[in-house]
Amino acid sequence: MVVDSGVADADRVFHALADATRRDILTRVIRSGMSVSELARLYPMSFAAVQKHVVVLERAALVSKTRRGREQIVRGEVEALRRVARLLDGYERLWRHRAAAIEEILEEEQ
Questions:
Q1: What is the pTM of this model?
Q2: Of 16, 35, 36, 43, which is least packed with CB atoms within 10 Å of its CB?
Q3: 3-state SS assignment for residue 63
Q4: Rounded CA separation 37/60 (Å)
Q5: What's the rounded Cα separation, in Å, for the pair 65 and 56?
Q6: C-alpha pair distances (Å), 82 with each of 2, 4, 47, 51, 55
């Protein structure tokens, strides 16, 4: 089966955003880049666990990492969030169109 790369990208994004810790990490690094070490100090979990969350966000292209000395700085990728917003807007248009079609059918029956 061939999977559209856009669909696979959306799957990675929604998987990444499905976790509250990852959403919180994303919110923090959009405001200001933070090292993985700084992030790890904020959560009641191991450094390795936080690092795994960052990897999931990175695979979804929601964050990027750059090296600063011995630290990896994590920054939010706003364009990725814009792509997600456009995808959700498309779903909203579809749902509104379907609701309008149902409304028309109900009006015709009256």
A1: 0.79
A2: 43
A3: strand
A4: 21
A5: 12
A6: 26, 19, 29, 24, 20
